[in-house]
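From the pipeline queue, job 12 of 40. The input is one protein chain; the requested action is below.

Action: predict structure.
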Amino acid sequence: MTTDTQIQKERLMSSIRPPLQFLFLIWGIHLFQVITTIDFGFLGILPQRIDGLKGIFFAPLIHADFAHLISNSIPLFVLTGIIFFFYRKVAFSTFFMVYILTGLTVWAFARGSVFHIGASGVVYGLVSFVFWTGIFRRSIKAIILALIVTFLYSGMFFGILPNQEGISWESHLLGAVVGIFAAYFFKDKIEEDDRPPVYSWETEPEPDAKHFLPKDAFEKTKTQRIEEARLREQNWWNSDNTF
């Protein structure tokens, strides 16, 4: 027999599996770069260039150094885990929407003179999604998660400020915008445990109320009521004298 504790444990394990797999991928790629001394920076997003479109898919997988990789790994794990645990219906869709649309908007609007690499744009998109989901859904759970994310990552606000050397602030800003869009797009995909309970008295039909006057008392004319009384009396007389 499966207990609630076992169910929650299985849910937790299934929620952390996707972020762990993604971290395994980006760490494996970076270790391969270090071992082979091959720089994969050319796989980043080069805005407004056809040959830079490949970066939409590869840029979040490439990092400049271990500091860059570690700074993205922790929030990636935490935020992706939160989304897969609490927003299971839209978790995969949200992650891929943020991943692809962030890359696409960076390619379309960012500076065209440099390659943009790293998963920080995805991180900002996920932070924004969790926060704005709390705004749009207004459920207790969503609001609490929004407050937690705000407390943990409020310092990330400075990352969207322009003209920071060595930082793709465009990825941060555009990722945050994409996160807002994703939160609004999926705001009606309510989880089962978010639905308010339906109480028995809400489904039971209301009993017929007793009225001092007939319901149609003010809808009929005096002539109509006299005629109806005459017909009732006639029907009673006929039924009472039938042999």
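Job complete. DSSP finds nine helices and no strands in the chain.
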